[in-house]
Known about the structure:
Layout: H1 8-20, E1 31-35, E2 41-46, H2 77-83, E3 93-98, H3 102-111, E4 115-120, H4 127-139, E5 142-145
Parallel strand pairs: 3-4, 4-5
Antiparallel strand pairs: 1-2, 1-3
Helix pairs in contact: 3-4
Amino acid sequence: MRQDYISWDQYFMGVAKLSAMRSKDPKTQVGACIINQGKRIVGIGYNGLPAGCDDHEFPWGSEGDFVDTKYPYVVHAEANAILNATQNLKDAKIYVTLFPCNECAKLIIQSGIKEIIYESNKYEDSKEHIAAAKMLKAAGVTYRQINVGKLSYE
């Protein structure tokens, strides 16, 4: 039997990372993959504009007046994965390439997801992270960081 196969964590984070590659954001590409208790993918998403909004008609920058940045327009990967879900998410897990912000934490909690597996936490010192962690703890949603690195497909 082959011994060098990838783990479930590597597999589902790999799907999240592949989803992130669909993002048009020039600075931050985020992907998410939701699985049910049977290890079946039930939702995927990446950060991007809402359906029907032309990627060329909205800003992708992160500096300047709020309405001239990407922030009021981009739907986060976690939100897209939840909205794309094919079934109830009670007790599901979400694999996400970046630790969820406070807004996404609310959606994760409200959807019934019980575990977050993330790779990067580059905003760990932000107010948004502190608020997200506080809500997740209060709601009993666990989280853990993994690093799958670059996966080889050869």
